[in-house]
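Tokens for chain A. Residues wanted.
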């Protein structure tokens, strides 16, 4: 049984979100007594976040469900620097226009998961370029730099691991933790934000912000991190064989998003239901106890619940219907990824790669040689096979049992 008195920490604990807290007792007391504004920061390096970011977004959702205020901080400023955490190379620089476009696109995902508005517990989105872009270099050094020692900065994993691998780290990137710490201090002073949350790899950066607020303003603020979310096979969340699993439909079709969750390892189903859905804990306990082929019922429930949250109810229904029709009836559901071809047709290997089923033509050849590729149920092994269709015709392309697409003329 949890010993927490606040709804916030009790729910986060029960559903498996808590890895580290700077002052669990203090945060619990604060959250039990009044509204606690809390934030998570997201850099805008692409037009969409991916499922590796979803646990942090769900933290903000849980915060709002418990009666507190979520603050989404988009890193319009820090995106220009680059977080060195877990990286071996310098981040590519984006133009101001590209960053603004990315932020606008990313916001659409948050609008499905959080309630935005002007109320005391309504979510708000802010851009750290609005304040980081205004502070001068000398001012930053004088006000903030004096509270950071290079000795301490070198001890953080984001820096230490990079140096141990003898990978270059620019002075620009070395400043990232200072800017993130300043973000927390600014948000506390201007918006009363008292909590920063994030993944376990952000612990050092979060602690910096907590200490900076205490040293500069004498303010008590809190930090909380989630465990590193990996799948049962040890791979990080956010990636699939064919690339990143994006939250936005423009970057990944609804069916592929649904199928990612449907293909969850048996061992991960219960944990992912707790982290990524609003399903009651007793129902999750029932589903994760299923064995044998029945566990597929839990996987479909997971895929439906996450897709409905992130993409909408219609997307979940259509994807499930497509999967059912594809697997059960051999049909071609309307939500399958599609490849349009001209009168000259397309080579089978090129089709596999263009659809993202294989990463290269070489991999496509190997899959064909293994007998894993079918057109309308017929196995194709010749990498030179040309798929041609009459106008208006379509064919179903399958790679193994789980990847299916429509080729249309």
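Reply:
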């Amino acid at each position: 049984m949890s010993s927490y008195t606040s709804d916030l920490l009790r729910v986060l604990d029960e559903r498996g979100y808590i890895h580290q807290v700077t002052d669990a007792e203090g945060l619990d007391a604060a959250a039990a007594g009044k509204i606690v504004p809390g934030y998570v920061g997201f850099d805008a390096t692409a037009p969409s976040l991916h499922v590796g970011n979803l646990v942090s977004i769900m933290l903000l959702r849980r915060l709002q469900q418990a009666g507190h205020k979520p603050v989404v901080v988009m890193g319009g400023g820090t995106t220009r620097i680059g977080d060195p955490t877990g990286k071996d190379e310098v981040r590519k620089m984006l133009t101001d226009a590209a960053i603004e476009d990315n932020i606008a696109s990313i916001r659409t995902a948050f609008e499905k998961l959080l309630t935005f508005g002007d109320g005391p517990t309504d979510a708000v989105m802010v851009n750290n370029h609005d304040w980081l872009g205004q502070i001068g270099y000398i001012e930053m050094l004088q006000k903030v730099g004096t509270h950071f020692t290079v000795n301490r900065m070198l001890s953080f994993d984001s820096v230490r691991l990079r140096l141990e691998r003898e990978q270059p780290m620019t002075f620009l990137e070395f400043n990232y933790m200072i800017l993130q710490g300043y973000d927390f201090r600014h948000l506390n002073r201007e918006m009363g934000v008292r909590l920063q949350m994030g993944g376990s790899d952000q612990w050092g950066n979060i602690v910096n912000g907590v200490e900076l607020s205490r040293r500069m303003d004498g303010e008590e603020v809190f930090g909380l991190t989630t465990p590193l979310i990996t799948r049962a096979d040890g791979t990080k969340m956010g990636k699939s064989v064919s690339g990143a699993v994006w939250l936005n439909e423009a970057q990944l079709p609804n069916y592929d998003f649904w199928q990612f969750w449907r293909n969850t390892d048996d061992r991960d189903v219960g944990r992912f239901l707790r982290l990524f859905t609003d399903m009651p804990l007793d129902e999750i306990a029932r589903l994760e106890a299923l064995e044998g082929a029945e566990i597929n019922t839990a996987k479909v429930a997971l895929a439906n619940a996450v897709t409905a949250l992130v993409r909408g109810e219609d997307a979940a229904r259509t994807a499930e219907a497509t999967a059912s029709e594809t697997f059960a009836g051999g049909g071609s559901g309307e939500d399958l990824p599609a490849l349009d071809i001209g009168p000259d047709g397309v080579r089978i290997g090129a089709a596999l790669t263009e659809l993202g089923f294989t990463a290269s033509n070489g991999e496509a050849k190997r899959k064909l040689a293994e007998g894993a590729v079918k057109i309308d149920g017929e196995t194709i092994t010749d990498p030179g096979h040309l798929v041609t269709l009459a106008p208006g015709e379509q064919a179903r392309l399958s790679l193994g049992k789980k990847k299916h697409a429509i080729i249309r003329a």
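The radius of gyration is 24 Å. The first strand starts at residue 20 and ends at 21.
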